[in-house]
Design a protein that fits this description.
Elements: H1 6-14, H2 19-33, E1 38-42, E2 45-49, E3 53-59, E4 64-68, H3 71-77, H4 105-121, H5 140-147, H6 150-158, H7 161-172, H8 177-192
Antiparallel strand pairs: 1-2, 2-3, 3-4
Helix pairs in contact: 3-4, 6-8, 7-8
């Protein structure tokens, strides 16, 4: 790797005309704020390295995207950098179609400085607790059908949470009584045979 990678020059050059000034601006801001940064190409688009991956940028047909490797931590420290109400895209700054869609230069520089600090300290984002699963409500007609078929009941009770949920959602999503009854019968037959809701695709 080197401070400036000719592959990044080529990437910018082949990008759409609207994207070229955006990518060049981002690149210049990064280098001026962190002179030690090095460029490389990863996964087909430019990355900037400083004690690990610092950030990356990409150009698409109608927008650009930019993201910090430790984006959540960066924006916790510089919350005014994230613009509200922007369409989502890869990275943390939404769909970028002009330089004005980026944070103001002084704010963007603060983000880069914070990203550098995080890489130097090896900071890691806190582990998010797993969401609490809601108790599954088994509809009465499914309960009744399972009660009459011991094999299907054993299969249902042995299923994982997600497999039980798939059957419940499939049955309760029926828009007519006839469809619901048909799905219920099919579900019981499949579970009697030990099959999950999506058994047809299990080995695809």
């Amino acid at each position: 790797m080197s401070a400036f990678d000719p592959r990044v020059d080529a990437y910018i050059e082949k990008s759409a005309d609207f994207a070229k000034p955006i990518l060049s601006h981002i690149r210049e801001c990064i280098h001026s704020t962190c002179p030690e940064v090095e460029e490389t190409m990863k996964w087909g688009f430019p990355h900037f390295m400083y004690k690990g991956i610092l950030c990356s940028m990409a150009a698409f047909k109608h927008h650009c995207a930019f993201g910090f490797w430790r984006g959540a931590l960066v924006f916790d420290s510089v919350p005014d950098a994230r613009k509200k109400g922007k369409e989502t895209a890869m990275g943390q700054l939404g769909r970028i179609t002009k330089i004005g869609d980026l944070p103001a230069r002084n704010i963007f520089s603060r983000c880069i400085i914070e990203a550098v600090r995080l890489n130097e300290t090896g900071a890691k984002a806190p582990i998010k607790p797993k969401p609490v699963r809601k108790a599954l409500v088994v509809p009465d007609d499914l309960k009744a059908g399972l009660k009459k078929n011991k094999k299907a009941l054993a299969t249902f009770e042995g299923f994982s949470y997600s497999h039980r949920k798939e059957y419940i959602q499939w049955i309760t999503a029926a828009k007519t009584d006839a469809t619901r009854m048909k799905r219920l019968k099919t579900a019981i037959d499949w579970m009697e045979a030990g099959k999950s809701r999506h058994w047809k695709y299990a080995n695809c």
